[in-house]
Amino acid sequence: MRSRGGLTEQEVNEALREIRLVLLEADVNFRVVKDFVAKVKVRAVGEDILRGLNPAQQVIKIVSDELIELLGGEAVKLKISDRPPTVIMVAGLHGAGKTTNVAKLALMLKKQGKKPILVAGDVYRPAAILQLKTLGEQIGVEVFDIGDKQDAVAVASAALHYAKSNGNDHVLIDVAGRLHIDEEMMDELKRLRKAIDVTEVLLVVDAMTGQDAVNLAQQFNEALEIDGVIMTKMDGDARGGAALSIKAVTGKPIKFIGTSEKMDGIEPFHPDRMASRILGMGDVLSLVEKAQLAFDEDEAVAMEKKFRENRFTLNDYLNQLRQMRKMGPLDQLLGMIPGMGNLKGAKIDENEFDRVEAILCSMTIQERNDPTILNGSRRKRIARGSATTVQEVNQLVNKFNEMKKMFRTLSGAEESGKRHKRMPNFPFLK
User: Fold this and answer.
1) Which residues contact 374 (CB under 8 A, 6 or more apart)?
2) What is the structure's pLDDT at 380?
3) Which of 44, 210, 372, 384 is the most buried (most CB within 10 A)?
4) Residue 138's domain spans which residues?
């Protein structure tokens, strides 16, 4: 297709056949696939090639535009009640991560300067109440509870009254779940929604269940009229078929996605960024946002100066390593870098971070600031202290020296207007 000046129907059909198979293998709803392919074909056949694009790139642009539309078009924020507090009811089945994601959402709101309160509305499972209290203590958010064996509506009403008097602007209710959808659970959720002024009903679904997640969202929406979806386990090996199908099947947006098991492992869902990730074009905006949270701006400026002046030490390396780990799993970060999407499934040894950090922490400050003093006896001591081998210590020091040479070369090339292509091998990418 790259040598063509326009897009013929036969060429488009060949491209769409491959797209159709990929989507079906990713467990996207077959009706959604059919409609999606039809829309792409209508737009692609006979369309003139935009300046600067070849036909293959034009098809990717059309697919990208339609993917964004399929995923919801634009990010949908949480509704805010005109009369505080904003009440958010979080529903879902057991095992999808409902209670954990209620707490994650509370932490996100807290970081935004809000004053949320968690409500233990699962009155049938004392373990669920205990779990929510443990998570609340972990993130520093109050949990409201009047004991088990109480009516969920009574708990929610009492929590709402308490929140108004306590100045809480967001009330997050963790309602009872089940192993499967049943009439009793739906009746309770309907009573809850009718008894208190609920601003949002969010449904937690597991991305790993594929089409079952779509069916679950559809059933909940028909019975309860949900406002949005939190999709969990997006950091796993799920192909994302559920994310592509939910908006099209239910008409309800995905509002948040779970990106890790950590308490900060939740982020707003951006259709354009997800489409970019799916097509292997990276997600630079999300990467920048993660970096802004993890890295101190003044420290970054000082570090850049050290790079330019070739004063970067193992001490700086250790600090950078720790800050980078705050950004999340490395395989996720690779998927956000344009052109690196194919490495997202690469074998990345996260444990190597621990080994590198152990080696660096077994050095003295003087040794980290001046690695040239690392003689044989010092390296043996470091290996013993970090439970590694002398060979591993040598490898780390050698890679660090190689990296410093690269920075020195880059600085010189920058001054002369040239670019240096050689990059060192990172210890955590096998």
Assistant:
1) 363, 367, 382, 393, 397
2) 94
3) 44
4) 86-279
Q: What are phi and psi of 108, to 5 degrees?
A: -60, -45
Amino acid at 425: N
Same domain, yes or no, for 56 and 160? Answer: no
CA distance 54 to 75: 30
How do the pLDDT tens digits run along the chain, 430 residues long? 555 555 677 777 887 888 888 788 777 888 888 998 888 888 877 665 554 456 666 777 788 888 888 888 888 889 999 888 999 999 888 878 889 999 999 999 999 999 999 998 887 777 888 899 999 999 999 999 876 556 888 889 999 999 999 999 999 999 877 767 777 778 888 888 888 889 999 999 888 777 788 888 888 888 888 999 998 877 654 456 777 888 888 888 999 988 888 888 888 988 887 777 666 554 444 555 555 555 565 666 666 677 666 677 888 888 777 777 666 666 566 555 544 444 444 555 667 778 888 999 999 999 998 888 999 999 999 999 999 999 999 998 988 888 777 766 655 544 544 444 444 444 444 4
Residues with Cβ < 8 Å from 395, sequence gap 6 or more? 427
User: Do residues 173 and 162 make contact, with C-beta atoms less than 8 angstroms apart?
Assistant: no
Which CATH number is 295's domain given? 1.10.260.30
Contact criterion met (CB below 8 Å) for 336 and 430:
no
Pair (250, 341) in one structural domain: no
Whether residue 356 is contained in a domain is answered as: yes
Tally of residues, the chain: 430
297 with 393, same domain: the answer is yes
Phi, psi for residue 117 in degrees, rounded to 5: -135, 140
Peptide bond into 371 cis (omega under 30): no
The residue among 365, 284, 351 whose CA lies nearest residue 319 is 365
